[in-house]
Design a protein that fits this description.
single chain, 576 residues, mainly alpha, two-stranded antiparallel ribbon, 22 helices, 5 strands, 63% helix, globular
Length: 576
């Protein structure tokens, strides 16, 4: 399978090469052209689709850059204003045109003559957009886009002082790996105390978001925002009942493994009581893992690592580096978290993260690197809409890369014992992430089914769900004040509502691909690339099938995959 990361900006046929999005007035003529243009043949329709695709790519990339620049520097008011201008002055003007263009497409007599297999998922998505569109939701959606970004601004300002030096919360979390237990506890409390300072601001922000989202759903004829969002996210292939089944399967088949992992940690650290600040720690005399020092070193080592898995993967990172599509180091004023942002016109995506020299940063880098590879593989598809793939396959791309790359982690860890610890850390994370996914997902179902709840009811429900999925080995005594607001650290709740179950579904897919990889590395990577290059042109079950996977998250299937991961941990002599 030959692929090249020598990605090229799409040549423009419809818009001038030097065109940039500045105001609605300079953009509207292109939408008007598409709306007014007669379509009298199959060839006319195909040309119309290509021109619309080009316009979508230009607008999408412009919007993405505004968001990228703002998250890289949340304290720069000019960058924030540029983003806000787009979502309040340009995006709302586009939406009515997008709806009219969608209707023009589906009402064209020539749409029946398109290749129905090639255009099936695209046309299904267009019809869904027509069904959901409401003029009265336009101002609400632009208000929501501005509000959601306030989370990054609030969180980006959070710092703590440790040993007389200021750290972002991401940087400070490195101290939780220290063998000095009193330092760990002190830093854990400082981080949580700092979060509590903004608890009311974040509660108020979330309440506003919930109310506006509920209104959007009501306007579109839905009982609640959860049902609306399932439709908007294109969840054609599973239901809320499937999500509830997933929650139960996690309780049955994953939590027992989490308890075993925690018992082992307690024993390794020789503790009578395992506290939350002990989860990343190593015993006295064992230094924390130190895979890299700077963002540049992380990038160089990641390229070397990817080269061993498949040269194309490394080429993608090299191309991004050459195009300055990476911002990796943690610093004050930078939004929290990490992401890979596809850029529809120029093709090479942008990776943003907050690296602080920890093992978890390696995981984030290879994870976002998997997303980047997906962006490169899907870019040659003809239409911008074809490149918009479902999140349940997008996260398979990233999570599989975490597992595939483990065989090449010796570039980060030269000592055998460090390499084993790193792999142990990764496999523990593969298991321990499921209860948190189930917690966040179940919480969101409740939040949007009960949109008029009070802040007190929200806290009580959160604690009930959190306890349901918490390990009984960890001692949380006296920490209820912190735990009550633990949901506030999850940016998805604020910025990408109801998006989180995808990580659980995709982790199952990633484990399935890793099972293939263990049997036949070449076949597994071929399956991986075959599926990803399809973008969003197939249904979710078809995309999974192309990767040699089944789209399944039943309790029996989850049990089977958990047993495989446990077996891999046994091989490292680190069970469970």
């Amino acid at each position: 399978m030959n692929h090249t990361a020598d990605i090229k900006k799409l040549p423009r046929q419809f818009l001038p090469e030097d065109f940039t999005v500045t105001t609605w007035d300079n953009l509207e003529p292109y939408f008007k052209n598409l709306l007014d243009r007669p379509i009298n043949s199959n060839a006319d329709l195909e040309k119309w689709l290509y021109d619309m695709s080009e316009l979508e790519a230009v607008v999408s990339e412009d919007a993405c850059w505004r968001q990228i620049k703002m998250t890289c520097d949340t304290e720069n008011k000019t960058l924030e204003e540029a983003f806000v201008f787009f979502v309040t002055q340009i995006q709302p003007q586009i939406q009515p045109y997008a709806d009219k263009l969608n209707k023009k497409l589906v009402e064209s007599p020539f749409v029946a003559k398109l290749d129905q297999q090639k255009y099936f998922t695209y046309l299904r998505s267009v019809r869904k957009s027509i069904e959901l569109f409401r003029e009265e939701n336009i101002p609400l959606q632009s208000e929501l886009a501005v509000l959601a970004q306030q989370f990054g601004t609030i969180a980006g300002k959070m710092t703590v002082e440790v040993n007389g030096k200021e750290y972002t919360l991401q940087q400070a979390s490195k101290f939780l790996e220290s063998h000095d237990r009193s330092l760990r506890e002190s830093v854990y409390r400082k981080i949580n105390e700092r979060r509590l300072q903004d608890k009311d601001a974040l509660n108020d922000l979330y309440t506003q978001l919930i109310q506006k989202r509920h209104q959007v759903a009501k306007n579109a004829g839905f009982d609640n925002y959860r049902d609306y969002k399932f439709k908007e996210l294109g969840r054609f292939d599973y239901t809320k009942e499937d999500c509830f089944q997933f929650h139960e399967a996690v309780k049955q088949h994953v939590l027992p493994l989490v308890n075993i992992i925690n018992e082992r940690k307690k024993k390794k650290l020789n503790l009578t009581s395992l506290r939350p600040w002990d989860s990343e720690a190593e015993p006295e005399g064992v230094a924390p893992l130190n895979p890299f020092s700077t963002g540049n070193e992380l990038l160089e080592k990641s390229i070397e690592c990817f080269d061993q898995v498949h040269p194309f993967f490394a080429d993608c990172l090299r191309k991004m580096s050459e195009m300055k599509r990476l911002d990796l180091d943690s610093r004050k004023g930078k939004a929290p978290g990490g992401y890979n942002c596809p850029l529809a016109e120029t093709g090479a995506p942008f990776i943003f993260m907050n690296a602080a020299g920890q093992m978890s940063d390696v995981t984030t880098m290879v994870h976002e690197g998997g997303h980047a590879v997906h962006s490169f593989l899907a870019h040659p598809l003809e239409l911008t809409s074809f490149k918009e793939y479902p999140m349940e396959i997008a996260e398979v791309a990233s999570m599989s890369m975490e597992l595939f790359s483990m065989d090449a982690w010796d570039v980060f860890f030269t000592k055998e014992e460090d390499l084993i610890r790193a792999k142990e850390h990764q496999l523990e994370r593969v298991i321990t992430i499921f209860p948190w996914i189930a917690t966040i997902d179940k919480f969101q179902h409740w939040v949007y089914e009960n949109p008029t709840h009070t802040v007190e009811e929200r806290s009580a429900k959160w604690m009930e769900i959190l306890n349901e999925f918490s390990s009984n080995v960890v001692d949380w005594e006296g920490l209820e004040g912190y735990r009550t607001y633990a949901w506030q650290r999850q940016l998805h709740l604020f910025e990408v509502p109801l998006y989180y179950i995808e990580y659980g579904i995709a982790q199952l897919g990633a484990i399935g691909l890793w099972m293939q990889f263990r049997k036949d590395k070449t076949a597994a990577i071929n399956n991986y690339m075959t599926s990803l290059q399809l973008g969003g042109t197939k249904t979710l079950p078809e995309l999974y099938k192309a990767a040699g996977l089944v789209f399944n998250f039943s309790p029996d299937y989850i049990k089977q995959l958990m047993q495989f991961v446990k077996g891999e941990m046994d091989k490292l002599n680190v069970h469970p």
